[in-house]
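Re: weekly structure request thread

Next one in the queue (213 aa):
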Amino acid sequence: MKKLSFTILLSFLCINLISAQGGTNQWDDRNNLSDNQWTLGFGVNAVNNSDAQFTDLTNMDHWAFNKNPFYISTEASIANKLRLGAMLSFNYTSNGTIFEGQTILGEDEGGNNAGYLAFDISLKYSFLSSDAFEPYLSVGPGLTHWGDYITQENPTLEVSPLDTFTLNAGFGCNIWFSSAWGINLNATGKWGVATEYTNSHQASIGVLYNIKN
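Done, posted below.
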């Protein structure tokens, strides 16, 4: 799956770089962010709900990246340097992933790969915009679904699915290769509202396509 995702991203970038060489004014449409009405995105994401908070973030056993770790997104300019976006992401926690301080017992060991589904809305502020680089900060609400699962520590206890509202904050950067094509790098922290589940983190990388009216 990782090789496939990398191949998709590399293919998009290669196609864009080849097409961009044919024009000399590829940045004209990016000089004014308010003119760029809609941006579509597609990529992959990883989710961390290990209960380790902000410690041990580099431990890959804490991150879910399995089966269908994809997302789709859209956003629109609402003012200079401000954009309103929405993102729908999918993932699964597989065998051996640390979830809420315990180890998931996945399908390979007779359990199940717990599903993850999230819909998030974000207000993004681009604090240092340029033709090629567009770093931003983001805040907004979300709705997250965690599927049922069992753990290696308690193989006879099945935890029921849970839907929870979250308050999100994050940062990221759009890297533009032309007025139409770019890539997005994003990291978000999610705080559960009135739920027994702890905070989670999500990281993503994807391809952007800008639509100008």
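The domain at 2-16+35-211 is CATH 2.40.160.20 (Porin). The chain has a mean pLDDT of 83.
Next request, please.
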